[in-house]
């Protein structure tokens, strides 16, 4: 895979997760939105929800989020959150 996202999930106490991803969904204030490589620059307030990250190795990570901002630019995604915890996938 030539194109990927560099994603950072950041809380007030430090970086929770950082790595390369093929796709992520982010719970925006106006609804959840997806980000693939090549996404246009974008800034969004976060709502309560689940940030879902698919790593380039097909790993699947989900984090509950509450408040914050997301910044997307040049295939870099920074998700700054007020509160989070790892979400357990439901089967």
Automatic annotation (TrEMBL):
Annotated ranges, domain ATP synthase F1 complex delta/epsilon subunit N-terminal: 5-82
Pfam families, sorted: ATP-synt_DE_N
Sorted UniProt keywords: ATP synthesis, CF(1), Hydrolase, Ion transport, Membrane, Transport
Record-given protein name: F0F1 ATP synthase subunit epsilon
Domain of life: Bacteria
GO molecular-function terms, A-Z: hydrolase activity; proton-transporting ATP synthase activity, rotational mechanism
Subcellular location, record wording: Cell membrane
E.C. designation(s): 3.6.3.14
Transmembrane segments: none
Membrane topology note: Peripheral membrane protein
EC main group: hydrolase
Primary localization: membrane
GO cellular component, one term: plasma membrane
Similarity field: Belongs to the ATPase epsilon chain family.
The keyword Lipid biosynthesis appears for this protein: no
């Amino acid at each position: 895979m030539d194109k990927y996202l560099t994603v950072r999930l950041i809380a007030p106490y430090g970086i929770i997760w950082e790595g390369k991803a093929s796709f992520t969904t982010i719970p925006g204030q106006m609804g959840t939105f997806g980000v693939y490589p090549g996404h246009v620059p974008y800034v969004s307030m976060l709502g309560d929800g689940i940030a879902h990250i698919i790593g380039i190795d097909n790993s699947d990570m989900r984090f509950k989020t509450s408040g914050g901002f997301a910044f997307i630019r040049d295939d870099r995604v920074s998700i700054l959150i007020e509160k989070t915890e790892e979400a357990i996938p439901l089967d």
